């Protein structure tokens, strides 16, 4: 028996989960927020308890030290030696990484180099990796890439119709993201449906503040909505999703907002999506609260969000030539009864529906009626478990 910790580092946060392996038992989990800011928050949950402390955390190295000290302070571990493996979620693996990889300096440098593909994520992912290597240099350290699951896409799906030299020389292509989530929920859906995944055509909808839709055929990704970076695809909390590329030079010419590449990235990644349209919030809960109060901009943000998801599902019904099931997961997909209902109502011609008695908060499994041609499921994602399993795979090699 050993203990493995799964890490998901953000620019100012670090989410973690500690497992007893290979039993896959969760021993503790937690979140460090506001890293680099005053009044940082560290939360640890274990044995039905939730412990929180407010303190100043300067950087990810200090965050890791606090995390590990909390594990000892609450007697979750007696010493650091009990932790034999750590797995790090990394968003962009580019064409370098078609599978998870053992961490070394070359791998970290490549993760940092690929920050061009995931500017909001890879730098923070690399910071988390370096922080753990500094404190626990001798344990099995593995990077697990969001893009790996999508390396099975055919060239017709991942290539863009631009001059070939930009692919061959600059590696401009679709990479996708959220791969660990799409892979996990597809496999879990096969279990729920009681059929081998090799027989199934599935459309997995990872809908949170970041959102992506994936077409899964016989257990492998054949197309996905996120593109060269996580900016592409459906509308998200603060990201545009797909837009006409001509908008960018137009706004560069006629506004003062798009003067530099950094300006463009900031507006499209951080100031758009639900936040940009509603001018209120990037959180769907806030959007729905404003809708109930009659806020027209919030209503429009909701309507565009639903519309874009429906359109991608429609695309993937064509890519797959039909589907056995549509799966909702992640923060909004798992928790918003309203979004699930609205999305499915608008594509009911294809033979899918939601049963109002099943489509409730906290629902898991099939939420469609027994006669639905295309089943609709809610499957809570567990990216941390996928990461822990990959660490075990490398330990056993």
Q: How would you explain this protein's 3D organization?
A:
Homodimer. This is Acetate kinase. By secondary structure, the chain is an alpha/beta fold. The chain folds into two domains: 2-145, ATPase, nucleotide binding domain (Nucleotidyltransferase, domain 5); 194-383, Nucleotidyltransferase, domain 5, CATH 3.30.420.40. The chain is built from 14 helices and 14 strands. The chain has helices at residues 60-73, 105-113, 122-135, 155-158, 164-168, 179-193, 247-254, 261-270, 273-278, 284-292, 296-320, 330-335, 337-345, 383-395; strands at 2-9, 14-21, 25-33, 40-46, 49-55, 83-90, 101-102, 140-145, 201-207, 211-217, 220-224, 325-329, 365-366, 375-378. The strands form two sheets. An eight-stranded mixed β-sheet has the order 5-4-3-2-1-6-8-7, with helices on both faces. Strand 4 and strand 5 (49-55) form a beta hairpin. Helix 1 packs across helix 3 and helix 10 crosses helix 11 (296-320).
Global geometry: globular
What kind of sheet is the major sheet?
Answer: 8 strands, mixed
Mean of residue pLDDT values: 92
Provide the CATH top-level class of the largest domain: Alpha Beta
Gist of the model:
By secondary structure, the chain is of the alpha/beta class. 37% of the residues lie in helices and 21% in strands.
